[in-house]
Amino acid sequence: MTPTDAPAVLIAALSGRALAACARRGGYRPLVADMFGDLDTRDLAEASETVPGSLTRGFAKGALLAALDRLAGGRRVLGVVVGSGFEDRPALLRSIAARHGLLGNQAAVVTAMKDPFRFAETCALADVPHPEVRRDQPADGNWLRKRAGGSGGMHIAASTRRAAPRRGRYFQRQVAGQPISAAFLAAGGRCRVLGLSRQWADPAPRRPFRYGGSSRPAPLSAARAADISGAVERLVSHTGLCGLNSADFLVREDGFDLLEVNPRPGATLDIFADSEGALFRMHLDACAGVLPDAIPRWPQAAAAAFVYAPAGITLPAIFPWPHWTADRQAPGSFVPRGAPLCTVLAEAPDAAAAERLVRLRAADILAHAEGAP
Description:
Layout: E1 8-12, H1 17-25, E2 29-34, H2 39-44, E3 47-50, E4 53-54, E5 58-59, H3 61-72, E6 77-82, H4 90-100, H5 107-114, H6 116-125, E7 133-134, E8 143-147, E9 157-158, E10 169-173, E11 178-187, E12 190-201, E13 211-216, H7 222-236, E14 243-252, E15 255-262, H8 269-272, H9 278-287, E16 301-308, E17 313-314, E18 325-326, E19 334-335, E20 340-348, H10 351-371
Parallel strand pairs: 1-2, 1-6, 2-3
Antiparallel strand pairs: 4-5, 7-10, 8-9, 8-10, 11-12, 11-14, 12-13, 13-16, 14-15, 16-20, 17-19, 18-20
């Protein structure tokens, strides 16, 4: 039970549960504004509000700002930690910062990281390999069509046919490799890499790169892991990044490419959060310019996966969510086709075993949800 005089922190994210859990373990009182209002989010939060919006377009600005104002009302809050949903919303980030203060990257830093051409320039300055990017659609070769500021892989598709120009759309040369993500803390141009995880996609029609899940530690040699950590350190030295962030790579035997940086706590938060809550405190310390002398240690490997509804599912009035699920939706909720149903978690002695277990659990929860009366 968190003491009533513990520091309060506002959390704004498409789904705020993972951040709320991390904050609660760290001894903070989470006040959550998100788009789902899941059962466990409400249990973890001292107070929460469900804010309208869409997964592709983000929050309704006025509704989110009003929700944060109500949550902060009468409380002394440290500021706002944001998760997903703001990569292409710099004006909204500035509004949040003006009202409550941001505990994380400011709008200018987020803009610099998510502008594909400015990011490519930063990678070149830092001597970090990065796939070629273009504004115009290439006539030949293997290219991906992306949306600047997109997240979760929903905005990525193969550039196989001519597409009309669209604001925010760009093209990135497709490269081979195993998807690897680096979770890191940044402060004052320096960083501490927490660890590396392997990621995988859960393809869907028209969304072949939709995020599926991740496991740690990543199956890489010590030398390759050191190369990736060095690349992150060089990149951070050319940015104003602060707090907890992640960097997504494609890694091969002969090298790697950095695809993007997520300037916020990312999708791998569940597998890097520690039971003592040190990670959230480290995030806040890094935002204040202080990096930890030591990073958390995890006794076991871990994996987490999103479970998407393959068809519309209406949950029954009573649905026994297993303890290894998170982002649990309320009884009677309708989950549209392709929408997230929940997150499943697993720990095991090694990453391969954790990944097998999380995939089995994902199939199990889906079978139960689809077969529920």
